[in-house]
Amino acid sequence: MERIYNKLVRDNIPNIIEAKGEIAVTKILDDGTYKSELEKKLYEEYKEVLEASGDARIEELADMLEVIRALAKLENKTIQDIIDCADVKSKKRGAFENKIFLEKVIEK
Questions:
Q1: Rounded CA gap, 84 and 82, in Å?
Q2: How many CB atoms lie within 10 A of CB 49?
Q3: For residues 24 and 13, is the Cβ–Cβ distance under 8 A?
Q4: Cα 58 to the center of its chain, rounded Å
């Protein structure tokens, strides 16, 4: 029996599959396709974050972070570069700690 996935997976997944006595059919992506598949993976992880709670949500956030790390690497950046950028934006525009929901803006 075959199970079709057609999706980007973590580097050790083929070894895990083969350790179970199954055959993993894989290919290496070119950079453009890799970027596109990472973007799809980010959306997949985003949906999983929304559906999870508690420790499962932390696991899904970790998966999302790993995808973000890979996307940053494609831009020759690191996760620390992203954190630094977020810190600058937080200082300039604030964070989301005060739970402010903007309903509308009225022009004068």
A1: 5
A2: 18
A3: yes
A4: 13
pLDDT value at position 74?
96
79 with 72: CB under 8 angstroms?
Answer: yes
Q: How far apart are the first and last CA of the chain?
A: 67
Structure tokens at 25: 């059919």
Crossing angle, helix 54-74 and helix 31-51, to 10 degrees? 160
- The whole-number pLDDT of residue 4 equals 96
Q: What is the number of residues in the chain?
A: 108
% of the chain beyond a pLDDT of 70: 100
All residues at 6 or more sequence positions from 64 whose CB lies less than 8 Å from its CB, including other chains:
42, 45, 46, 49
Closest by CA position to 28, among listed 40, 19, 17, 37: 37
Rounded (to 5) percent helix, strand, coil in the chain: 60, 0, 40
Check residue 7 and report its DSSP letter: S
